[in-house]
Amino acid sequence: MRVLAVGLLASGVVTWIAANWDGLGKFERIAGVQGLLAVTVVIALVLAWRARCRPALASGVAGVPAFAGALFLASVVIGGLLALLGQTYQTGADPWTLFAWWAVLMLPWLWAARSWFVIVLWLVVLNTAVVLLLGERSLIRLPDGHSLASDAWTLVVVNAVLLALAECLRARFNDPYRVVPRLLVLATLVALFGTLAAYIEYIMRDRLNQDLLLQAVFVAVIVAAGFHVYRKLRPDAFILSQLAVFTVLYAGSFVLLVSWLFAESIELSVVLAFIVGLVGLLGCVSWLRQIHRSQPGAGDAETMPVSHAVAPGGATGSVDIRANDRTEPTRHWPLLFLFSFGFLFLLGVALILLLDIELTVAGALCIVVGLVGYFVLGERRRVVGATLVLAGSLLLAFEVSEHAYFGLPFPLPALGLAVGFMLLYHLYRAPWYQFLCAIVALLLVADVWLQYSSGFDTFESRVGWYSFLNEPAPVYMALATLILMALPRAWAVRYKTLAWALLCLPLGACFVYMYGESYGVVQDQAGGQAMLTLALEKWRLPARFPLYYLSNMVFALLPVVVAWLSASRRQVPWRDRVVVLLVLLGLGAVWGDLPGVQIGLLLCVLGYELRYRSMLAVGIVSIIIFLAQFYYQLSFLLLDKAHFLMGQGVVLLVIALIWHWAGSKGAVTVEGTVASAGTHMSSSAPSFSLRNESVSPKGAGVSGREGYPMRKNTVVMAAILLGLVAVLALANVDVVRKEAIIRDGTRFVVALRPVDPRSLMQGDYMTLNFVTPGADQADVFSDYSHHYVELSPDAQGVFQFTRTLPALTAPEQPGNVVVRYRRRINGGILFVTDAYFFQEGRGEHFAHARYGEFRVSRDGTALLVGLLDEKQNRL
């Protein structure tokens, strides 16, 4: 609950700052954000002091001490404060500088928290700064001007260095589930793949750069080193699966591109890429199988990816299925099979289309050959036959999507294929295989459902994903909950992958719908209503669309039902039980037909009840992604969304704190507070148990200490205070300096390029394009070594560019001004700033801007202080 409260508060703060609300003066806004920062840091100090008295609290739940959560929120506020300063003073600073200062100012709190929760935020901020910096200038120069490849290699170096530091310092921070190294490995591999993608344009010009071959050698060395480190030195099955996936994808893509250039035959290139990808997949599987056999501990649930579900059963509602996993080693590498199968399947489809083969013929042939191979080949090679059957069935599914085949109405072949996929689900019991079969079967059923749904006759159902979210999706989620919570142990183990598919399909549909469409008619008809009022409006009876009303109830009540069952099984006290249910019910009521939060909450509650860490992580990540996308929805004003998010965050945080303080001596709750007696969790449960906060998973890479020793607590608190002082000092010094420029600087006016205001406006800021030199001044910015420009006024008092200067010098004539400018990587000129921020909803007012009003100091630093209309009146 505290984590969700912190997330909502952080989202609300960022949204409030982005709204650029002018209801308060600039000093009030800056002081308000600084006050929020100070309050958050004080809370962190209090929690850190309590950890001194109760050392078990210092390690926290899942490696997140309570004061680390407060520092996480404070770190988010740092970014908001820096953004507010740039927004208020229209500095035009490059975005990368904001994120770079953000990362620097977080360092004291990063050291104090020593929690993966804060470290992950810092890594995201730092990588964002590097990416934005690479948009301005290249840090590594490669021959022939490959800027994209050099940028990708820069990211590889940065994340590889951070990975090495994380592994060397693993005993100095809490990361029980190795989130930090796994995330850094993923970032490094993505950047490595980007080095290959960067050469596509070069290859398309029919030229082979020798650097490409040398790059492939470097990549091979890096990946081989990764395999060695995480096989021998830091055994980690999940990272090994990441490396295996990368090997298959990179090798196949490299062969596809290079062979296409040499052979000039796309058919041959696809065949070679398919063979290389298949050989790579088989080699990785064989090697990982040997690792599994040589190290029985490789089946440990703490290092396994998504395939290790723990289904309900017994009094505690948990089932340990790790013994079953040893009979099928491929259960440990679902990522490898999912991505590799997808890559090979796409290559196969491309080859079929290039050879002009009918999909039905190719599909039938794959099914026949696959069935023969499955029953004829040995047990170890059955995966080949099963994969061919799956590929053939997918080809037939593509054909059936055309709605009428084999002379039969559409539902019959579609439903028949759905039944066939469920038979395949039982044929080969590997999680990746079962997951794909279940997903396709559910998609076919949903397609048939929607074709015969009465909802398609309504106005709101013009969007297919919206109809899916309101009709089949609630049914799928209810079925998944039934499988995981109500079925006997044996059935729950058998159909846990089906439950995953039933949950992931609505979640994926929600994300696709958010990115592809607005939230629908209800939100588009906001008409100025407050967001909370509109959110509660959907519960009014009688409902216009009863089926959609029912789906909203399912989304809202499913987390409540699961929480109730979980609390009953764990014998949670009634007081705690009622609080949890009321909180979940309240969240379901206010989010309503925006189902992202409800789906995330359901995944979190199920993941906690089943001791299923992967499901819990997916639920948390889905809520974060939904809140990030919610920021960009234009149906509501940013200020309204900020109040909506912060209000929920404050209420949840107050409830969580009161609940925690009142029940500190009680049993563990869904929130994860400390239990002192009467353990409710099975002693045989995985170490993800939240009963004992000092428990660390085996091999997690954390130190053996329980929190921070008391003698170090003073240093931790000093670091927290140091971070606060540094942020406040930097912010206020910057404010004083900017105010001095506004007060004492020389005023000058520059014209804006005449651009259609409709293309000039972008949300809550205006893109500024200042007048460039005329034809007689075309070479004024031609010298790339110059960084200052002199401007002189014309008869109307509008300043024109006259000459550039290599260094700051006195103006050539009285009345002229000298201003520092910056040159972008694309050769463009950034004069002071390229945007003007204003309160959301005032775009039409500032669309009449024709001039920019500036103030410049003696050192050439200028600030944009306002926009002027055609008569030079301040807007």
From TrEMBL:
Domain DUF2157 intervals: 4-115
Signal peptide: none
Keyword Glycoprotein applies: no
InterPro entries: DUF2157, DUF4401, GDYXXLXY
Domain DUF4401: 342-658
Keywords for this protein: Membrane, Transmembrane, Transmembrane helix
Transmembrane stretches, start-end: 29-49, 61-84, 96-112, 119-140, 152-171, 183-200, 212-230, 237-262, 268-288, 335-353, 359-376, 383-400, 406-425, 432-453, 473-491, 498-516, 547-567, 579-608, 614-632, 644-662, 715-733
Highest taxon of source: Bacteria
Keyword Transferase belongs to the record: no
Protein name per UniProt: DUF4401 domain-containing protein
Species of provenance: Advenella kashmirensis W13003
